[in-house]
Amino acid sequence: MAKTAQADRAANDGEPEQAATGDELLIREGDVAADYLERLLDVLDYDGDLDIDVEAGRAVVSVDGGSDLDKLVGDRGAGLEALQELTRLAVQQSTGTRSRLMLDIAGWRVARRAELAELGRQTANDVLATGEPSRLRPMTPFERKVVHDAVADIRGVFSESEGEDPRRRVVVFPRS
């Protein structure tokens, strides 16, 4: 059974173990996820460097470096989404708690976030110009959140999600 970083430190310095902080738990999630992903990359014989971080109250694991990594991302990030869910399940099995871990492979999420933010801003500006609502194509929860955040930064418009997954989409409306 894996020990937490805090238990390792307590065992090493003779100090009594204290309750882990939120960031320490997230770092532990990242460590478990990185171990899982490292084993997967080894099985696939893919090269990749793993980076663990904590951003906005969630563990973030990035895999970069290997030329084959794009195959893991898949079409429109479908492989990445599936691998993220498998990694979250591995973390949950190890820690006993539900994980909100975010996985990025080959910088795909970073690039996609920039594309979606631009789409949100452009759509908001189009709605301002025409005064008509605009319905975007169906998106994943990650994609919708990025678009909602971008629209929220533009005065005179707001956005809502409509529909049910997997057909859930963002609609941008003019403010009255």
From TrEMBL:
It holds the Pfam family R3H. It comes from the Bacteria. Keywords: DNA-binding. GO terms for molecular function: DNA binding. Residues 1-24 are annotated as: Disordered. Residues 110-176 form the R3H domain. This is Single-stranded DNA-binding protein.
